[in-house]
Amino acid sequence: MQRKIMKFKPNYLLLIVFMFLIQPLCSQSYSPAKENLEARKWFADAKFGLFIHWGVYSVLGDGEWVMQLQNISIPEYEKLPTFFNPVNYNAAEWVKMAKDAGMKYICITTRHHDGFSMFDTELTDYNIVKSSPYKKDILKELAVACEKEGIKLFFYYSLLDWHNDDYYPRGSTGNGIAGRKDGNWEKYIAFMKGQLTELLTNYGEIGGIWFDGDWDKKEADWHYDEIYQLIHRLQPQCLIGNNHHEAIKPGEDFQMFEKDLPGRSTQKFASKAEDIGSLPKEVCETINGSWGFNLQDRHHKSDKELIQYLIKAAGYGTNLLLNVGPMPNGKIQEEHVKSLEKIGDWLAVYGETIYGSEGGILAPSEDLVSTQKGKKLYVHLLNPKENWFLPGFNTKIENMTFFKSRAKVKYQFTDFGLLFSTPAREQDEIDTIIEITLK
Ligand code: GLC
């Protein structure tokens, strides 16, 4: 019998209707849920969070890249979990430390580039519960402590994996690590989806997912559409950020900057100025020079540098995610605990000029930045000196005072801007704040 061959005639009207119907499924049309928009607002107001880089690499005290830096083979590296036993880990202490520092959220590494999962996962035995003597899920404890203290919990999740064979074809890093085998990329994507589902199901409400490692394989198909949709379906308020150093991709909710204030371009991987968008922003920075615990990194930034970085970040309209790398025993090094205390002391007095603010109308410079809440403009003078001039400033002023003493500031408008002086008794080594109420 001869088969009838149906000739396919395109019905353009049907096609248009079909496209219209599937449009909501495409991420290009991502429209954030109401909860997500509220979460973005919360995030932009929060201004300050704690980044935690913690993994079995902390045992070696040489940062989180030690596996690739020292080319430690797979079987050698697999020994590390067997003596990772953080008996002094106390999630409540960490959360209290962050809260006292004035931080509003915590972002912790759940799985870094070494591929070791710091949580209970069904997708691999290479995890803290099954492969370490500690046997407990550190995320569970942290999630409980955060919930109790009203601190939001974000999860860092590495896209790059030096341990999983399915991370194949491999990327630009970790190629000197012996013992890696060939695998299947689609299986790797499924693995990530499985783990992300666990992370968004087993730990209560999650503030956000912080992706990293995209830069390892620029040409890869990461299936972001599916991954981002999965996250927003499981938890619509969950904010997605990705440290790809590029313009925002559809489905992302905030833009992140690594060790670089937006637009400063101080790093070779810095985002291009034209890629900076209007979503909430976050810059991450280390207290010394390392993310993961580094025993010999002595380049701890001074309290002044750290506080001024937080102020500058706010002046650039961005949050600061400040990092600690806990030690293998679960404690955070004393120098860093002390620095965080100092920042907390400062925020307890001046936090009003930071939290809930936006970058102010004055362009940031080395000498000053400004933050703003409606008609209240806070000028943060970062280098103490007596005479100041704000070129081009011609907005009418209702009131101008020193934030701390509430004394009036003497000022004068010229044809070219605003002149004012800060007498020595008002000057502050870290930040002299002038509060201007604009008319
Ligand atoms: C870089 C590093 C990574 C670190 C991250 C934090 O991407 O590869 O180790 O976790 O920066 O911003």
UniProtKB/TrEMBL annotation:
<feature type="domain" description="Glycoside hydrolase family 29 N-terminal">
    <location>
        <begin position="27"/>
        <end position="352"/>
    </location>
</feature>
<comment type="similarity">
    <text>Belongs to the glycosyl hydrolase 29 family.</text>
</comment>
<dbReference type="Pfam" id="PF01120">
    <property type="entry name" value="Alpha_L_fucos"/>
</dbReference>
<dbReference type="InterPro" id="IPR000933">
    <property type="entry name" value="Glyco_hydro_29"/>
</dbReference>
<keyword id="KW-0326">Glycosidase</keyword>
<dbReference type="InterPro" id="IPR016286">
    <property type="entry name" value="FUC_metazoa-typ"/>
</dbReference>
<dbReference type="InterPro" id="IPR017853">
    <property type="entry name" value="GH"/>
</dbReference>
<keyword id="KW-0732">Signal</keyword>
<keyword id="KW-0378">Hydrolase</keyword>
<protein>
    <recommendedName>
        <fullName>alpha-L-fucosidase</fullName>
        <ecNumber>3.2.1.51</ecNumber>
    </recommendedName>
</protein>
<comment type="function">
    <text>Alpha-L-fucosidase is responsible for hydrolyzing the alpha-1,6-linked fucose joined to the reducing-end N-acetylglucosamine of the carbohydrate moieties of glycoproteins.</text>
</comment>
<dbReference type="InterPro" id="IPR057739">
    <property type="entry name" value="Glyco_hydro_29_N"/>
</dbReference>
